[in-house]
Amino acid sequence: MRSHSTDFEVHRNWLAITNSLPLSKWYFEDRSEWTLDYPPFFAWFEWAMSHAARWWDPRIVDIDNLGYAADTCVLFQRVSAMASELVLFMALRRFVQFNKGSVQSKVAAALAFLSPGFMFVDHVHFQYNGFLFGILVYSLVLALEGRDLMAGTAFAVLLCFKHIFMYIAPAYFTYLLVHYCMVYKVVGKSQRRPGKQQLDIGGSVANLAKLGALVVLVFAAAFGPFAAMGQIPQLASRLFPFKRGLCHAFWAPNFWALYIFLDRVLILASRFLPETIAANIDKAATSTRGLVGDTEFAVLPDVPPAATFVITLVAMLPACAMLASKRRATPQRFIQSVVLCAYASFMFGWHVHEKAVMLMLVPLSLLTASPSPRTLRMFSVLAGSGYYSLFPLLFGTQELPIKVCIMLLWAMCALALLKATSRVSAWGCLTCIEKLYLLGHIPLFVVSELVPAAAFGRLQFLPLAMVSVYTALGVLYSWIGLIIEFVLA
Fold it and tell me: Is the pLDDT of residue 473 over 90?
């Protein structure tokens, strides 16, 4: 299959940049609009692959060969994306081994590895998320094994590959601080008294120093060469492009999609209540033109980057609070905290991509190894809405049956496997409202995928907006349900 997306050219251009130019020019090259905007470890990953690409087809790494999409190039990038997922496979294998090969852990690993998200985003959209999430799963498994120092180091390495994982850094910081750095000793113990725990200042400082030294070493290896060349400001401008606007061209299914939708509803209401609702219609097009840029609102207040940062941090507080004491900071609750931090960042972050939904789905898949009924329900709702929100990434006519078959096969296998290994059926434990919501994706599919675009006239963006808003409801609902399950229950 020759299907590919704009990310295909992104990574082809990065292969060319890292192979053709010296290190000092990697983050300055801008002949293509697809400039290098991932951290240094990923740039070195592209550099390593570029040597194989040059051997396979030298035209792939020609810096001036923009838009090159020969069959040899498509095949190389597809095979490289699939081969890199071996890291995820090995990490999930270790997860199964930690759980002593239980059937439940094998099902959880299968749900993650065979995820439609990796099929859509990596195999067709051409990214390397399987490889990156493999490092994340390794880090989580190391935490489960009690190897906190290595878990933190692995996460630092991951951040130097892709900075989007900063979304879950607060969970790591809180867990490692409480579970690893804070060391306690028993004082006043005797035959008559059990003694009490007291913070061991010396041991705590020593552990903090060890963890800090390893993290600094990792970041120095990644960013040190660029710091030596005085390029950190340029690198930072590539990694954090705040001029791209609140929302991506296709809105991620998060709170801001619902915020934009509410703004549109208020615009309509202003026509009937002009004296009550003031609307600046000229601003309305900025969020529905399908382009990356500043998002302005006709009725509701505009949202600056600082506001999203503060709101996100506040939304993360429940996730961090659940790890606030040594007794509560267990590895299992740590993974739950990672899931909730990912949710908070996805729901309220600045310029979030729809693909970031995988940040919740992958660690939540691991928790299906021993799920409660509510966890199973929320996983089902998130999987249905989250994976469907990725459908617009595969917009070609020839890709329509492929994404439908992948989604249906995964859903049927997931329902069958979870029913066979859990105390309750994944579908049977859903409430009527949850079942109706998931079934509602069927008419949404008809409208957004089968109705010709010409039928929408000037409202060409309406099908994508419907997908974003409808799936955002499922993501929001599952987040609230998991807060109740993980924090309040």
Answer: yes
pLDDT score at 427: 81
Report which secondary-structure segment, H or E, holds 184: strand 184-187
Range of weakest confidence among 166-170, 372-376, 384-388: 372-376
As a whole number of angstroms, the distance between CA 98 and CA 329 comes to: 19
The domain boundary, picked from 68, 84, 100, lies at 84
6: Cα within 13 Å, side-chain hemisphere: 7
- CA-to-CA distance for 373 and 360, rounded, in angstroms? 18
The domain total for the chain is 2
Dihedral pair phi/psi, residue 187, rounded to 5°? -125, 155
Amino acid letter for position 428: G
| Pairing state between β 196-199 and 184-187 | antiparallel
Residue-wise DSSP of 373-400: HHHHHHHHHHHHHHHHTTGGGS-SGGGH
Those residues with Cβ within 8 angstroms of residue 479's Cβ, 6 or more apart along the chain or in another chain: 340, 343, 347
Query: Rounded to two decimals, what is the model's pTM?
Result: 0.93
CA distances from 338 to 175, 257, 326 (A): 10, 23, 17
Report if residue 222 sits inside a domain. no
For 259, residues 6+ apart whose C-beta sits below 8 A from its C-beta are 297, 300, 303
Between CA 420 and CA 486 the distance in angstroms is 24
269: confidence class by pLDDT, cuts 50, 70, 90: confident
Task: Give the model confidence (pLDDT) of 103-129 as tens digits.
Answer: 999 999 999 999 999 998 888 777 899
Cα–Cα nearest to 175, from 215, 135, 131, 144 = 144
Kindly give, in sequence order, each residue whose CB lies less than 8 Å from that of residue 136, ignoring residues fewer than 6 positions away.
91, 155, 158, 165, 362, 363
Domain edge (last residue) among 18, 50, 84: 84
What CA–CA distances, in Å, run from 244 to 141, 148, 287, 291, 445? 35, 36, 12, 9, 29
Q: Three-state SS for 303?
A: coil
pLDDT > 70: what percent of the chain? Answer: 91
Write out the residue range of the structural domain in which residue 41 sits: 1-84
Summarize pLDDT for 289-345 with one digit per residue, the tens.
Answer: 544 456 678 888 889 889 999 999 999 999 999 998 888 899 999 999 999 999 999
